[in-house]
């Protein structure tokens, strides 16, 4: 994925539901970083939720966030990566 300034960013996928405040926080953080992401709403689609659970190693809560094929976890893990200065390099990986 390429940003407007021409720099490469890894593909980000976030599994969400409409009523999840942590989903909103995660999307806000990604937006603040200028990251485009694919959002998959699992609220009313059992097959998509099953796909999320399988991909996330059994985690059933939302959000579930992936950078490329790497499972980051939920908002708390995303925020911790950012706080520790590890999110930007992860997003910049080709």
Label the overall shape. globular
Q: Summarize the helix and strand pattern as letters.
A: EHEHEEHH
The strand count comes to: 4
CATH architecture of the domain at 26-89: 3-Layer(aba) Sandwich
Q: Which fold does the CATH topology of the domain at 26-89 refer to?
A: Glutaredoxin
Low-confidence stretches: none
For the terminal residues, how far apart are their CA atoms? 9 Å
CA gyration radius, whole angstroms: 13 Å
Provide the structure class.
Answer: alpha+beta
**Going by CATH, what is the homologous superfamily of the domain at 26-89?**
Glutaredoxin
Mean pLDDT: 92
What is the CATH level 1 assignment of the domain at 26-89?
Alpha Beta
Helix content: 25-40%
Strand order of the largest sheet: 2-1-3-4
Largest sheet entry:
4 strands, mixed
Strand content: 15-25%
Number of helices: 4
Q: Which labels suit this protein?
A:
Glutaredoxin, 4 helices, four-stranded mixed β-sheet, alpha+beta, 94 residues
